[in-house]
Structure formats: C-alpha cells, structure tokens
Amino acid sequence: MSLSLGIVVPCYNEAEVLSETTRRLVPIIDRMIEDGLITDGHVYYVNDGSKDATWSLISEFHENCAYVCGINLAGNVGHQNALVAGLETAADRDDIIISIDADLQDDINVIPEMVQSYIEGNDIVYGVRKERKTDTFFKRNTALAFYKLMNSLGVKSVYNHADYRLMSCRAVKQLLKFRERNLFLRGIVPLVGYKSSCVYYDRDKRFAGESKYPLSKMLNFAVDGITSFSVKPVRMILLLGVFFILVALGILIYVLVSYFSGNAMPGWSSTILSIWFVGGSILIGLGVVGEYIGKIYIEVKDRPRYNVEDKLLK
Length: 314
Description:
The protein folds into 2 domains: 4-214 and 304-312, Spore Coat Polysaccharide Biosynthesis Protein SpsA, Chain A, CATH 3.90.550; 232-301. It is built from 10 helices and 8 strands. Helix content is 51%, strand content 16%. Helix 2 (54-64) links the parallel strand 2 and strand 3. Strands 7-5-6-4-1-2-3-8 form an 8-stranded mixed beta sheet, with helices on both faces. The chain is an alpha/beta fold.
C-alpha cells in the first residue's frame, strides 16, 4: 500500500532547536520507509513570523534534506493558525498528517505506532501524555483544573492531549471545513467524528530555547477554548442574577420583620458591602458577555486566518 506521511511543525523563533529537530525527524521517516510502513514522507516547517533565523534554517534544510519543506507565513498569526496552514498544505500532498511542536518534547518514537493505528482503521490518533512529571506544580494542577472545567462545560476533549496527533487526509479536509477564527483545535478535532484511538507516551523536557506559551498566552488559550465551545458561562450569569433577586427578597423580608418588631438599626457597612458585591458581579457578568460579543465580532469579519508569503515544497 502506497502511503505518504506529512509531519507539520509550527515554528516561532525556533532557530535554537531546528537543527536538532531535523536530526531527529529525518531518521524516523527513513526507518518507517525501510520497515514498509510508509512509502514517502515530508516535514513541513511552518514559519509563523519568526524574528530570528528560523526561515533561513528552514531554507537551508530544504536544500540539503530530501524531506524538508517550508511554509513562510506573512507575519505572526499564532500557533493554531500556523498549524492549520501546515495541515492544509500537507492534505493536498500526503495521505496522513502528524502535527507536533518544534521542541520535540512529545515522543517522536511513537510515530510508527500512530501510523500503525491508522493502518488498523483509525482516522485520528491522539498522542496522550501518560503523566505530567516534567511540568511544574502550578502548570500540572492548572492543566488538570482546565480539563475538568472543559468537561463540565460539555466540551469534547482528550485529557492530557495537546496538538500531537495523526489525522488522515480526509479527516484534515473535514477539519478545514470548520471556519472559526477563534481556533481551539483540541476541541474541534473530536467534532470531526471519525474513528479515533490514543497512543500514550512520556513527555521530555525542552532540549533548547524557551517555551512559546507563557502564562498570559496559556490564559488566552484557555479562554478561547471555553468561549468557543460553550455558552454555559452566559447561562451562569442568568442563574447568578436569579440568585441575587432571591437574596434581595430575603433581605427585604428581614428588613420588614426588623422594622415591625422594632429592632431596625442603620447599617452603613452592610449597605456599602452589598453595593460593592453586586457592582463587582455586574462587571464580571458584563465582561463574560463582552467576551462572547468580541468573538462574534471577530467571526463575522471573516478575515483570512493567514497569508502565505512563500512555500518550499518537494
């Protein structure tokens, strides 16, 4: 069976790691060709508006390596959009596509296992971490809380899965029909609906460079994930409003009882506290609603997700 594999690697300021990334990925492709799992392979480095020598290195690897291709985006559009750009290019040229980050913290040695799972009939194969020992205490527990929150909001997601996955060509093309601009691929991919499986692995520490997901980006990513897939936060505001009305009725009854029993006392502190509490709750509610309105604003403009400046294909 003729089977071509594409490996999509989004890159943003990854000059420190690209040489090592290429050195590790190329032998994996060679080994799978020798073992008869695949007949051809490509590595698609997607340069997401890097400010360092990332694109120069990609161009050099393209000249010197039989598998390396390059996609140069015109400006920084973010990890998820860069990933979609690579998937869209690979879907026109390969039968199966694997996405992975450039730092290769995800174990590339399970790639043959992913391909084998596809051969057995799975269109989507999720790479899932066995545990999170390499994470800090803060990141490990916030990630756990995030996944639990997503599940409670009704969002389909795979616990401990990031963006390391295999997808068949038809699964990628189905994914590209989802036209959201606020991308959260971890939630969108399960909606494709094709048969899937999981491959488990241990995650390594980053071998060079710095993480491209500081706390601020992680928080933005979490907000995108929640607001793109669930309206429950808006419904919670409605329930909060009902709760405040009930509390107000309770206070009214208490005031009337106190007045007619002759125990009424002026309460400046309680009044001010109530004003601040209700005012803060209103602002929170407006903020949540505003977040959704902002998402609608971005979606209705329907701007392109990315603009490709240059491609180096083989």
